Amino acid sequence: MLQQTLLLLLSGALVAFLQISGTHSFPQPLSGEEETKLFHEMKAGNADARKTLICRNLRLVSHIVRKYYPTAQNPDDLISIGTVGLIKAVDTFDPDKGAHFATYASRCLQNEILMHFRTQKKYGAEVSMQETIDTDREGNPLTYMDIIAEEDTIADDIDIKLRCARVRKLVVSVLNAREREIIILRYGLSGAAPLPQRLCAERLGISRSYVSRIEKAALEKLRDHM
Description:
226 residues; mainly alpha; two-stranded antiparallel sheet; 11 helices
């Protein structure tokens, strides 16, 4: 906990003002444009931009703790731990990948809290994965397994979609006509079902081995440009 406290102090995140059961106001969240601008300024070495990103997202930490751990006996500790996750999210987030920072940060601070519970389990008595560690707002039990199984793939889904869009552009701009034709047929980029090499060869009137060589060369081109 000492290491976490030092990290918070060095970051300028004033966790002492965050009381989950109190009525303290939080800084207003940033707009998407403001957030993107600050991330680029931070990457350029602006320390004030980093502090602003942390402070203007502290509301998210409180929201996560209230939502998932409403009956926690140590909410201040969870806020501190969650804020460490927020700081890590700010330091590792890449705005150019197209994901929403709130989604990315939520996962990071949830992971930080999860590690806290895992550490408690490691140094305490053996605990069943089905043991209740808290309850949700409806009074339903929240277990270790519930936390571990919690999956939020929105950021990952967005990243995959962006990569797919980039691949499609590269297929058009990087590959020659024959390579493009084979890649489109092989991977169903025209909306049709992907075809095996044998059927591609039959449709194009060339040998299967030739299809294989062209496909391999095309994939290498795409990989180099990705």
